[in-house]
Structures are given as C-alpha cells and as structure tokens.
C-alpha cells in the first residue's frame, strides 16, 4: 500500500510476508526490511520518507538517516540500481551505536544505517533505465507451493549448515520480487546482496566480496546460470574456493556446465537445488570432484523436510574412488628414479618423491598417471610474456594435478602454483673434485704433524746431551761405563732408544739407570703411536686440504655452476657478501654431462642441494671406496621440499594431512635409504651386464688390504736415501783418512810391519796393518 508520495518519489509498505518499506525515486529504489518484532512501522516509514524527500532536494540519496530512541529496528539496503549495495546484518547488534555529545553536552544515541553510503555511490541508474533493462515477463513459472517450499528449504538449509556464516545473496530478475528472496533476507546472518542483470553477463559478480575470515556462504538465486558459467572461466582470484555454495538452478545441465569450469572444478562445497516434478518438491545435488564431473543428487526436500539426513557438503577428497590424477615429474636422482628395460622404456618409477605420491594415492584411493615436461624445461622458468614452462607451466595451465621432483619452495613460484606441506629439507652445497692423494712415500712423515717432528728432533738432541751430562757427573762419584761418557756415544744412544733398539752399553750408576728407564718408557709410547698411525696412512689414501669455505672459494676466483638459473637467485639474495659476489661468476648449464667434466678438471664448483650431491657422488664418482668428488664443508640457504599443486587445488588440505603422517612416522628418511639401495643394485646389475657378467668390483676380502709396492714406497724411498747418505759418508771418511794419515799409507809394507802405531793418533780409528 502507498503511504505517501511527493514530487520526487513515493513510499510503499508491504506488510506480508515480511514488512518492507519501499522508497522510490528517480535514481533508484530503497527498500527497508523489518523483523516481525519491530513496531511502529507506519511512523518509522513516514519519518524515513520525510528525510528521504528533504535530501532529494540537494542530491538524490546523498543523505544520512538518524533514529532516536527506537529499539529493535533492523534496516537493510536493497538496491536495484546499476551496482548492488551491501546488505548488512539485520539485528540490533548490527546497527552502529555511536555515542557522542553535542555542543551542549547532551547525550544522544545515533543509529546510523549501515550500507547507505555505499548505496549512495552505487545508485546511479534511473528507474526508467532499470525498468527498460530488467523488467519483463517473469520467466519463473513456479507455483505458490513451490515458492513457499523453496523459501523454507533455504531457511532450513542455512540454519542447519551455515548458521553463523556471512552470506552473499546473488539473485537475478526472476527472484527480484519473489517471496523466496524475502525469506532469505529475513535470516539473522550478516549479508551482502548482489543483483545480476541479464544484460551485464558476469561483470556484476565481480563486486561480490569473495573473501572473509569467517565462515562464508553464497546463495545464488538464478534463473539463468550463464553469467555464473562465464564468471567461472575468468578471474581465478575472484572466487572463494573454501566457501559454501547453494545454487538454485532451473536444470541440472546448467549446474553441470558450471562444475566443469576452472572455478567449479576446484570448489569442494557446491550444493545445487533443482525443482522436481511434484509440487513443493526440490532435489538437492552435490558436485563431484575428480572421479566424475558434474552433479549428483544426494537428498530431496518435500515441502517441509528432507527425506534423508542433510549432508550437502560431504568429504569428497578422502576417497577419490580410483580416479586417475596426472603427476608431472622427471628423472632427478635420488628424488625420482626410473627403472628401464634394455630398450629404454620406463618399467617403474621410484625414489623419495615417487614414494610420497604413491603413499598419498593409496591413502586417498586414486591412481597416478606420470607425465614429463618437455625436454630441458624441468621445473620450468618464467618466460618473457609472464607465462611459465616446464612442470610449473603444466600445473598453471591445469594440464597436471600435482608435480614433484625435488621441488624447492620459492616465493616466485608460489604465485603460480600451490605448495603442499614440506616433507623434506635440504641445504645448498658446493661439489668440487677431490684433491689428488698424497704420494705414498709421504706416509712416513704423515703420522706426526710437522710441529711434532720438530719437537721430537729437538727433544732427541736434548736427551742425548742430558745423558752425557748425567753419565759424566756419575763418573765423578764412581766408575761409569766409558761407552756413554762421550757426547757422540750418547747421541747415538738417544737415536737407538727412539728407534726402540736396545744398546750394548749398560749404565752402572743408579742415577743413569733411572734416567735410561724413563727414557725407554717415553720411547715405547712414542714409537707405538707412530707405528699404529703409520699403518693407517699406508693403507688409506691421504688427500690434501682443498677449498672448504665460501671465502676460500671467493678468493680462488673459480666458476660456480649449476643446472639452470635457479641457484643464481639464491646467491644474489644471500646476506653473505662473498655469496653475493659468487653470483657474478655463476654459469647455468642445460646438461650434467657438460658441467661435470669441468668440475673434475678443477675449473668449476657445482652448486645443488646436499642430498642430490651425496647421491651423485655415491653412484657416479665412487669406485673401490675412493671418490673423485667431494662436498665443500660450508653450505648455505636451507630449502624446504614439497609437492606442487594447481592454484587453489582442493587436494591441498588432504595432501597436507597425509604428509604430516609420513613425517611423524619417519617414512621419508626410510624411503630415501631404500631408494639408494635399490638404485645401487640397478647400477651394479647394469655393470655386470656391460662387462659380460664379470663384476668390476674387487672381491670381498673382509675389509683386509694387502700392502703393495705403492703402499711401501716410503720404506724403499727411505732406504735409498740412507744408502746414498752412507756412500757419501764413506767417501768423506776415505778422503779424511787419506788426508790425515796419508804418510803411513804410502810406506812399504815391510816398514809398516816393523812399527806399532798408537791408536790415539787416529782419534778413535785403529789401523791394523
């Protein structure tokens, strides 16, 4: 009924089924919904209309409504203008109470209607334009029973499934004047109302608030789902993939059409409501993910009740019913390994990442279809046009459901794909060639450090001199063996003790005996340590120290390389200044077969995660217990390793849960060790086949090593040195003897026999003709 009218508009009130006050003006329509508990409808409407008329004089809808001392009034904005307004919560708590004082300090309560400011900005189309674009015959041919039944269905649905959710109510012209909309509007939830015009396709849907920290529900009252279908194919970020959707549709086929769009495929909670043949009967459908497309009926509403317990959003990921999911991967040891036949065909996939995917597939009941990215693209890189290739590119274009191959978590990729819960962690390390081993003849010196040898040399001279001093001092108190009274004899005695060789001279005095006793204890400990360590150095190759720190690598000026450009970013973003400067020397390669020879030649250091380097060194560069490659001690940049999923994939939540189970049970580490053992057996089998069944490995001898000439070259080398020194000393003695006693040597033999030479003349030498 019309309450009053003015030059610029009129006011109408609808009392049933929900009290509605409608204010109509040249630029739009303002409708106010009241709960059944509100009072004074006519008075409130008249006061509101007066304010409305006054504000029209300055600027249509440029107004603010103030109510004083009205309790229980619930006001919401319903716009049929160009852009929808925001419909806010309908109870007293939703009304903003702004307490303030006026100039006379009188206290007032100001009730500001929420949403009017947005309605003012959005009410730009005239009533005539709205009528021309939106009016027409109502295509909704529902009976009164169907309409009443649908209203009760939606009310019951919301109260049971999403009672505390924020609602977005999206409707088109067919439901604009329907009591169904009034029933939904009367719900106590906080609401947003969006009108979809037939002529505007999907653009009206872009104004929906597609995000909320709270539970979010979406009720779509649409006679034609074409705008929704079009919207499902564009703007992937403008959608709430975790929200709860209720779509009232004229047919199941239109629901199916939406469910195969990019947004429909990735939304787990979609419920469809379609009219059944009987009056007041509505069929409830739910969307299916992965194992089938489209919708499937799971309940029926008969006027007032559901025929089955209401469960419109069951878990659809825990059991995928044998669906086939595509996994993008490629061979990357030890994360992904291939077992191939003689023709090169892949028989089996195994490795850490493969085991993780297999465990998830068994838990969630789906099958894996492994596919590879194009050759050389591997994980993928960002192209000039903003797109991606490789694994990331396939997931971004929805050509795969998941991807795994030692994939690091990076912010750059995170905007293109979603990551699962990390299931492994690694650090970035440098691999370099192993320095050539020390010559075996150096093994005689290696048991002791150089400073130890220096101390032993000085201590040996000191002990010989101390023995000479004690022996001569003891000789003053009584006789001492003359064999240890000279300095030369004591020095020779010290050398023999250090060699643990007994001497024929036995000290007589107690002081000298005690000294010799402790000297021998010291010598036994010293020689035992030397002999034990010498055995180790003779049987084990000793390698010189190489570059072990980032600072040393920076000072060496060598090339840093890796497969692809990924690690250059890691170096550039490092805090360490030496790592930053290494980025200038970084060279990316496309093939390991190109970079590894450079590393073996000592021209490059290869950068990758430690687990991969350990595997490569063990399987490719280890032979007979010795390795030609090593890992530099200092590493940097820890990374998490995870699976990649499609952006907004519904699989992520369940995948993360299963991966946490794996980590807690220690399965990832176990799979790594099993993969290494399996790959080692495969490579050994390949070696046997390539060598006609003869293994290239040495026979198992229980770990014993036979010492060959190579091990003992130090002893022979020392023997040669001693022989040379002995020969030199012999010639020196011979020359000295001829110079000093040459006259005796030149006499005739007869004269020599008649003369006795005093032994003291030869200073220790005895000449016996």
Automatic annotation (TrEMBL):
GO terms for biological process: detection of stimulus involved in sensory perception. Pfam families: Lig_chan (PF00060), Lig_chan-Glu_bd (PF10613). Its main location: membrane. The chain crosses the membrane at residues 452-473, 514-538, 715-737. Coiled coil: none annotated. It is found in: Cell membrane. GO terms for molecular function: ligand-gated monoatomic ion channel activity. Residues 334-397 form the Ionotropic glutamate receptor L-glutamate and glycine-binding domain. It is a multi-pass membrane protein. GO terms for cellular component: plasma membrane. It comes from the Eukaryota. Keywords: Cell membrane, Glycoprotein, Ion channel, Ion transport, Ligand-gated ion channel, Membrane, Receptor, Transmembrane, Transmembrane helix, Transport. PANTHER family: IONOTROPIC RECEPTOR 20A-RELATED, IONOTROPIC RECEPTOR 60A. Belongs to the glutamate-gated ion channel (TC 1.A.10.1) family. This is Ionotropic glutamate receptor L-glutamate and glycine-binding domain-containing protein. It comes from Meganyctiphanes norvegica.
